[in-house]
Predict the structure of GntR family transcriptional regulator.
Amino acid sequence: MGDARPVYQRIADDLRQQIDEGTLPVGARIPSRAELKRTYTASDQTVDRAVRVLKAAGYATGQFGRGVFVSDRAPLGVLVRSTGAVDSPLAARVQILSGADGPGPGAPDLIWEATSTAIAAPPEIAHRLGIGVGEPLMCTQYEYLADRRPLQLATSWEPLALTKGTDVLHPERGPYARRGVRGRFAAIGIRVVRATETVASRPATGAEADALGCSPGQCLTSVQRTHYDEYDRAVETSDTVLRGDRWRLEYTIGFGG
């Protein structure tokens, strides 16, 4: 039987195999459109679609005026998420990998920027927080770097009904800045006792790709996290995205005695 795969898929699979086997190493130029057309007897559109598949999967990156080159897909590090980790949207201890064999020495230089804005609750976030659509929220957007490399983007939402007029109104400003959700809410008498996380994957938007150094459509790991107080009331929820090909998530699971 003949190969039933569409031609663009066969081209993309062949190139992926060459990259995985090292025939096309990191930094190598992907064969040009003319070369691929000649090799596979394919049209411009078919070849272009195959290359888009490679880019979306993180195997290749286009360089304007130069061509398309094999991307470095080796994991940069591990985000260890556990109860003991900082409970900001980062919620992790970061380990930089020195190679495929394990973590490198020392902790990375971790920096982040944050911008907070009061907004009206959109439907999905209102549902997650158990409040009405349009109720006021503090929305904080984060951009994290580890050793000057893009790590993750995050957005956090907190009901202003809980924080307005307090010292914890802005998560990254004031006397309780950068204390994490539990520490900040404890300062205003709210005891945060648990958090839930949902991990999924989705393609990167153009803006996310620019910030994270990948191609639009490339697969991102997304984490939806919500904190609850002792009355099972949601007090904060966040969305985090990071490159699935460069960063791994590791979870510590404790068992009670």
